[in-house]
Every structure is written in C-alpha cells, then in structure tokens.
Amino acid sequence: MTRRSVYAGALVAFLASCAMTLASIIEPRWISWDSKTPNGPHIHYTLGLHRRCSSLTNTCDYFPHRQDCHGDRYFCSMWRSVGFLMSFAVVIEGMTLIAFIVMLVGGKQKREQGWKVISGLLVLVGLIQCAGMALIAFLYDNDDRFFPGWKLDISWILCTISWSVQTVLAGGIIATALLLPSEGGYELIPDTEREE
To answer: If you write DSSP's letter for every residue of 115-173 in order, what string do you get?
Structure first.
C-alpha cells in the first residue's frame, strides 16, 4: 500500500467528517425537547448554535436572543463560544483540505514529510470540536433551563462523530508515516558497459 493511497483514503474519510461538521452547524438540533399534550398537538422544540425552532409556531428564529441572556450572561457566553469554536473548526478543516491536496498532488518528499502538518491539523480540529461538544454537554447537564425531557440531539452526535473520526485519522496517518516503508523513488540504472 502506497502513501498516496493511504492519504486518498484518509481524504475521503476527512471529507465525510467535514460534511458532518457543517451539518451540525447548519441543522438547529443540538438540544431538543419533545412533549405530547393530552388534547393538543405534539410539541417539538430544538436549539441550534444560531437558531431555535418550535413546532408551535413552525418557525425558527435567532438564538440566543438578548432576552435569553438577561440576567444569565454565562449561558449566552458559553453558547456563543461553541458557535465560534465550530466556525473556527471549519476554517481549520479548510486548511487541512488544502494540505491534503498539496500532499496528494505533490511529490514523494511532500508525502513523506507532510504527515506532520496534516496530523497536527487533524488533532487541532479534533480538539476544537471536542471542546465545543463538551461545552454543550456541560450546559445540558448544569443549566436550569434544561429540565427533564430535554435531550442532546443529532447535531451534537454529528459533532462527536466528526471529531472522533478526525482524531482516528490523525493516529492512522502518524502510524502510516512511521510504519510504512519509504516510497520507491528513482533507482540508478546499472551501467552494463563497465560490468563487461
């Protein structure tokens, strides 16, 4: 197995994890609440990093509002920090994508030396996303607004899978760099005239 094929496979897995990161940011379903009323409709309420949606009004609006932060700036600061961390993670993912392309298009030397850059970027993205996921889990466990019935939803799960995949990819690329033999380069053509 060549390093090029390892990096190509890692790039495919990386692109899948990037799609999960973007979906977790776009889809407003980090934390949700469902309730069935005896005489009324099913109520579904979701919170995303930048929007909240309600089945009562069938609309989504900006979140957190200024009124959500009145008297509780801690929650809003933490929630907005997660939004920043996830956006920052997307920027680092873009840099990692460029590094992957340079490694695949570049020569043997880039593939043999560039693993340090790619694995470092993958670990960085994994740590940033893990921090964002952990902050949401902390708020879910400790903030009074999340009473029984609230649950961590699909966006939180996508973020968790994304940073896990990227961390495993970093480990795989490091293992590949250390364990695979060097790619075959140019070999000298034996001089047949001198041997005779």
So the answer is: HHHHHHHHHHHHHHHHHHHHHHHHHHHH-TT--BTEEE-HHHHHHHHHHHHHHHHHHHH
Q: What are the phi and psi torsion angles at 181 (to 5°)?
A: -70, 160
**CB–CB of 54/126 below 8 Å?**
no
pLDDT in tens, 135-175: 999 999 998 888 888 999 999 999 999 999 999 999 999 99
Q: What angle do CA 153, 158, 161 make, to 5 degrees?
A: 125
Q: Which of 49, 18, 39, 19 is nearest to 153 (CA)?
A: 49
Helix (H/G/I), strand (E/B), else coil: 42: strand
For residues 93 and 53, give the distance between their C-alpha atoms in angstroms, rounded to a whole number. 28
User: Radius of gyration (Cα) for the chain, nearest Å?
Assistant: 24
Q: How confident is the model at residue 28 (pLDDT cuts 50, 70, 90)?
A: very high
Tell me how far apart the alpha carbons of residues 78 and 76 are, in angstroms, rounded to a whole number: 5
Q: 88 by DSSP, 3-state: which?
A: helix
Whose structure tokens read 């966006």?
A: 155
Helix (H) or strand (E) holding 190: none
Rounded-to-integer distance, Cα 28 and Cα 45, Å? 10
pTM comes to 0.87
